Structure formats: C-alpha cells, structure tokens
From TrEMBL:
One of the protein's GO biological processes: tRNA wobble position uridine thiolation
GO cellular component, one term: mitochondrion
Annotated compartments: Mitochondrion
Chief location category: mitochondrion
tRNA-specific 2-thiouridylase MnmA-like C-terminal domain segment(s): 292-364
Protein name as annotated: tRNA-5-taurinomethyluridine 2-sulfurtransferase
Keywords (A to Z) from UniProt: ATP-binding, Disulfide bond, Nucleotide-binding, RNA-binding, Transferase, tRNA processing, tRNA-binding
Family affiliation: Belongs to the MnmA/TRMU family.
C-alpha cells in the first residue's frame, strides 16, 4: 500500500537515520528540505545554509533525490504572525507546536501528496502512532492515535499535540523504537559522520545567536512599563515591553535584597507584576483553564461518559508528567493538577497523556493563581 515515501530531511542525524531505515526497508524514498524563513530579511537569521549542505550530504550518501521547498509565506502567516500577536498581548506562544501543525503536517504533507505523488510522508521525530513506525498496522477505516516513543527523554509528542488526523494517518516515524544513542551509533556505522555527532537544534532557528529580547524589538514596538511588587505594591523597576518577558523569568533588577521574578503581565496597564524569590508561592499553582482542545484521535471516552478525565499533564517539553483531572467548561477545559507547578503560563499548551498516548492539547487562557499564603 505504501511504496513511495517523502521524508523531511533537516540536516540532522534523526532524519538522516530515519531515511536510512526507510531505504533499508525497501521503500522508494525522496528527501525534502523545508526552507521556512527568508534569510534576506535582515532582522532574522536562520542557519539553514549549513543544514541544507548536510541534507545534500545525507541524500547523496543514501542515493536518494532531494527536493528543496519553500514555505516562507506559510510560516510567516500561520506561525510567525501568530507568535507576534500573542507576544504583543502578553501571552507566551509555542512556535514549535504551531510549526508542526501548520507547516510540517499540513503544507509539507500537501506538497508531497500533490506534487511528488507519494503514498505517505515520514519524519525523524521521536514519536509513534497506533499504525506503527512504518504504517504496518494502517487501517483505512480507523483513526490514528499518537503514542510516545521508546526514548522518553527525547519524546517529541509534546510538539505534535496539535497535529491533525489527515496527515498523521499517513506519517511514518522510523526511529520510534530507538534511543538517541542508537540513532547516533547507526549514523556513525553508516558513514554519516557529517551529521552523526551534530548537536540537536534548540530554540527558534531564525533568531540565530541574538538574544530573544533584541530580536523581538525588530517586530514589536517598545512600550515601557513598570515592575510592581505584588506584596508591597511598590514600583521596583521599569521594563521596555511586556512582550520581552514571560512568567517565572528572573527580572535582573539591581539594588534589591532578593531577586525578582515575573508573576503576571497586565496588558491593559502594561505593568508587570513581580514576586521576590523563585520559590514565592504565587508562582506555584495547580489550576488552569484552556481554550477549546484539539483531540488527536477523539474526545476521550472517559470525559464523554463520566465527565471527568483522569490523565497526565505537561506544559513544557522537558518537564515530568503530572497527574491531573480534566473537565469540560463552556470555553474549553478546566485542569486541576495533583501538585503545584511553577510558572504555569498563559499562551502555552496544556498537553495531555494517558497510557502512553498523547491525547491532544489546548492553549492555556487563564491561571487560577495561589494568592493565599
């Protein structure tokens, strides 16, 4: 059923080994390098020149064709514009989740299906589905479920939590059952030395080596405001825009006994409310409210039948899963965590898991702050 596969080649070791495994399995494989940012725009920088050279090396080594496609317009409209709008209104967005939903599992999927005539796509993500790493359990009349990979430390299902069924049903994850160390070992043994020890990409690529606060100034107008201590009401400093700060971040204000951390950003007054000390109880909360959720397969049966879903929560990729209870409300979900977490942040995604499955996610719209202490 699946013979011709297009794989996203990023220039990294994961997609290189994923392509190798597809080739070994007898598929007709074609590589696709995605260019999502215009390097000619002076405000942003993306290191994709070196990545593209590495992608060429990988595909040459594996004897597969490589296509370079541009999704600059799509990335600007669907990801970067949303990112700017949310920063301007005091939220803290997650561009990686948006990029996977709108670019890698939408624009890329449609391009490969319509222009390359492929049967399925593949990526080097550490993720799995109920259809198997190579779609060996594919069923045309069933929905697909997003599952965690073997390597829980590298698990990337968090970033795929907004992906739609259409693309996920036809996506292979060849390294789903491998540890990162194994992936690097395979790359070395196959002579893919140019990428075998390459560092994993982190952060937003187009910022380059610039600090985020300097980069974002090129797109959002500076609007000064005050840092206000929520305990005393005292003004403890000034800032140059709420878009430069996120909840839990240290403010680096001088001449104070204890370091200050961002507690909440007030879009109406342009003030940032801060607390003294990283362990301040106001930073630690266990109740949040979201917008409408995106369920990857379907709304969980437990939530539909019993009105309460017992599952696990995370809002940051690297943090441990936390037990929680979830109920529907008129605008989305109400999520009650079993323990307090530091710096729950509006604009981030609440990603939900149960029995090794990523159920989906919802954008956090409000935090019920612990102000009784």
């Amino acid at each position: 059923m699946f013979k011709k596969i297009a794989i996203g080649i990023s220039g990294g070791v994961d997609s290189a080994v994923a392509a190798l495994l597809l080739k070994r399995s007898g598929y007709n494989v074609e590589g696709v390098f995605m260019k999502n940012w215009d390097n000619n725009y002076e405000a942003g920088f993306c290191s994709d020149k070196k990545d593209f050279e590495d992608a060429i090396f990988v595909c040459h080594k594996l004897s597969i064709p490589l296509h370079k496609v541009h999704f600059i317009k799509e990335y600007w409209n669907e990801v970067f514009t949303v990112l700017l709008n949310e920063y301007e209104t005091g939220l803290t967005p997650n561009p990686d989740i948006l990029c996977n939903r709108y670019i890698k599992f939408d624009s890329f999927f449609e391009h490969c299906r319509n222009n390359l005539g492929v049967d399925a796509i593949a990526t080097g993500h550490y993720a799995n589905t109920s259809f198997g790493p190579f779609l060996e359990y594919y069923k045309h009349d069933e929905g697909v479920r997003l599952l965690q990979p073997v390597d829980k430390h590298k698990d990337q299902t968090f970033f795929l939590s907004q992906v739609k069924q259409l693309a996920l049903r036809k996506c292979m994850f060849p390294i789903a059952n491998m540890l990162k160390t194994t992936v690097r070992d395979i790359a070395r043994k196959e002579g893919l030395l140019q990428v075998a020890n390459k560092k994993d990409s982190t952060g937003i690529c187009f910022i380059g080596k610039r600090r985020f606060q300097a980069f974002i100034d090129d797109f959002i107008q500076t609007k000064k405001g005050l840092f206000v201590d929520i305990d005393t009401g005292q003004v403890v400093g000034e800032h140059e825009g709420i878009h430069k700060w996120t909840v839990g971040q240290r403010c680096c204000l001088s001449n104070w006994k204890h370091p200050y951390f961002v507690f909440k950003k007030d879009f109406d007054t342009n003030n940032i409310y801060v607390v003294a000390g990283t362990g301040h109880p106001a930073l630690w909360n266990n109740l949040c409210f979201t917008l409408a959720p995106h369920w990857i397969h379907s709304e969980p049966y437990e939530l539909r039948s019993k009105n309460v879903l017992h599952c696990y929560f995370r809002f940051q990729h690297t943090k441990p899963l936390v037990p929680c209870r979830v109920v529907n409300n008129s605008e989305g979900l109400t999520i009650l965590l079993k323990k307090n977490l530091r710096a729950l942040t509006e604009g981030q995604f609440a990603v939900l898991y149960k029995n090794n499955e990523c159920l989906g996610s919802a954008k956090i719209r409000n935090i019920c702050h612990n102000l009784v202490y």
